[in-house]
Amino acid sequence: IGLGRRRIMTESIEPPLSSPVPERPCEFVLAQDSSFYTTSWQESFSQILPQERGFHFCNISIDCKSLQDGLDILQQDLAAVPTPVLIARGPLVSLLSQYYLESLPLAGLIMVDPILSSHVEALRQLEPCSEQQHEVVQELLSGSELRPLKLEPGAVPVLVIRSMKNDILGEAARDVALRHYDADGVFGKVSVLDIADQDALKAIDVISEWIDETVL
């Protein structure tokens, strides 16, 4: 997420016809806070998920000047993909994904290093990350973008991944998992798993296993 409204969604990459792995009824969409991480998961995910795991895959790049602007862009892009599993990598795009799910469907939601808008200390951790994120973070801290999340717990299968060695962000991720857990729901407990932020291959293994166990 950054300044200057821009929207780029790649075409869906389908499993190759020659692949020995059966095609699976699931399409992943990866959206990342590009300025929050030193590496991208796009290249590894776009190669391995279709070719070795049988999943459809596409990628979204979101640049926006406010949380609402980013939500509008996410809604426009995901309208072209029927009920995807969204991989929201990063605090701000994870926050966007939760507001998106208030009114629009997903088959599943995977959030990496997520926060809620009420996590003031976590938001302050994001301030020095980059100039691109600064305006959105400042609006959230000022309260001008603050509104309660109306999404009911257990609406869809949710997985939370922590990849940053940061106690405040780690605690925020646990809070997000608890926020989405419905003890009486059909999807069970919201798992919180730890991986290294640069370990895209481990992330693929974790996500694939979770899809098999929870979504499909």
Question: Your description of this structure?
Answer:
It is a single chain. By secondary structure, this protein is α/β, with parallel strands linked by helices. The protein is 38% helix and 17% strand. It is built from 7 helices and 7 strands. It has helices at residues 42-53, 67-78, 91-100, 120-126, 131-142, 167-180, 200-215, and strands spanning 6-9, 27-32, 56-63, 85-89, 108-112, 158-162, 192-194. Strands 1-3-2-4-5-6-7 form a 7-stranded mixed β-sheet, sandwiched between helices. Helix 1 (42-53) crosses helix 7 (200-215). The chain is globular, with a radius of gyration of 16 Å.
The count of helical stretches stands at 7
Average pLDDT metric: 87
State the secondary-structure class: alpha/beta
- What is the number of strand segments? 7
What percent strand?
Answer: 15-25%
Helix content: 25-40%
Globally, the shape reads: globular
Oligomer: single chain
| Element pattern in H and E | EEHEHEHEHHEHEH
Widest beta sheet: strand line-up? 1-3-2-4-5-6-7
Distance between the termini: 30 Å
Main beta-sheet strand count, sense and barrel state: 7 strands, mixed
Global Rg: 16 Å
| Residue runs with pLDDT of under 50 for 5 or more positions | 2-7
